[in-house]
Specification:
This protein has 285 residues and is α/β, with parallel strands linked by helices. It has 13 helices and 7 strands. The strands form 2 sheets. It has a 5-stranded parallel beta sheet, sandwiched between helices. It has a two-stranded antiparallel sheet with strand order 6-7. A hairpin with a 3-residue loop joins β6 and β7. α2 packs across α8 and α9 crosses α10.
Length: 285
């Protein structure tokens, strides 16, 4: 178990930081800290690692949260866009096995933001879930703390915190996570949701799959290696994936499986804690 965040509050020469992902848990944690620990809220530096590829709804939600908190949410960046990092990885799209996007565009900006300062990092893992937070990789200056676990808050508490204040992010109407529009952790129905809600972004994601494969060497620069693109999913290209999702939805509609309840209530009743399908904590909380 990590050190108690309450014990670390008065530690001299320590910065207090809380990463906002654009998702429900980290936002609820920021609200919880403001409402229940105002002395910590006054010290905390809120930050958001911005890849430049987030959904419009995520940026709108961040604006609402920032207004509610009454404090700036500092925008961090790697200083380079996704295409630059993609070229540095020879066109290899990130995947659950090779999460270079998380490392280059989320974690490194966070570590640069922290530097060598001694830091207490507030993480929104709940008392009713089991997953790892940011791993400091031997960086002893970063101390993670878990207020929800210490205070016993579970999933229902998170939804109540949000519904009583700024509401649930709108993208949860069709998506189970925050993160980039092309996030490889998306389920098939979420890719269909992207196509329906942001057709332009869906086409951009498709375009990555049709690019000619290249690599860079110092003698010849960027050269073609033969073949076309990688896919975002092992289940097929995006057209194939959304067609599978469309057929499944039609079948569920015919069988009366699709709920007519409010999308907020459907979300609360769903299971977003699939242990085989978890994005990095810094992206999705």
């Amino acid at each position: 178990m990590s050190q108690s965040f309450k014990e670390l509050f008065d530690s001299p020469d320590m910065r207090h930081v809380l990463g906002i992902s654009g998702g429900k848990d980290s936002a609820a944690l920021a609200i919880y800290i403001k409402e229940n620990y105002p002395e910590i809220h006054n010290k905390v530096e809120y930050f958001f690692s911005d890849t430049g590829a987030e959904l419009t709804e995520a940026y709108e939600f961040l604006d609402k949260l920032e207004a509610y908190l009454g404090k700036e949410i500092v925008k961090l960046s790697s200083g380079r866009d996704f295409d630059h990092h993609l070229k540095m990885h020879n066109g290899l799209l990130p995947s659950p096995q090779i999460r270079w996007c998380t490392r280059e565009m989320k974690i490194k900006p966070f570590e640069d933001f922290v530097g060598t300062d001694n830091v207490v990092s507030y993480v929104g893992i709940r008392a009713d879930e089991f997953r790892d937070g940011y791993q400091a990789g031997g960086k002893t200056n970063i101390v993670p703390v878990f207020p929800f676990i210490e205070d016993g808050l579970v999933r229902d508490d998170i939804f109540k915190l949000l519904e009583d204040t700024i509401g649930i992010p709108e993208y949860y109407r069709w998506r189970s996570r925050s993160g980039c529009y092309f996030c490889f952790f998306q389920r098939q129905d979420e890719w269909l949701g992207l196509k329906e809600n942001h057709p332009h972004l869906f086409e951009l994601a498709k375009e990555y799959e049709t690019r000619e494969r290249t690599k860079f060497n110092w003698r010849d620069g960027e050269v073609a290696t033969g073949g076309v693109g990688y896919t975002w999913s092992q289940s097929g290209n995006l057209d194939e994936i959304v067609e599978k999702a469309r057929i499944k939805r039609e079948k569920q509609t015919e069988e009366g499986v699709i709920s007519s309840d409010r999308w907020q209530d459907v979300l609360k009743a769903s299971d977003d804690d699939d242990q085989e399908d978890q994005a990095c904590i810094i992206c999705s909380l």
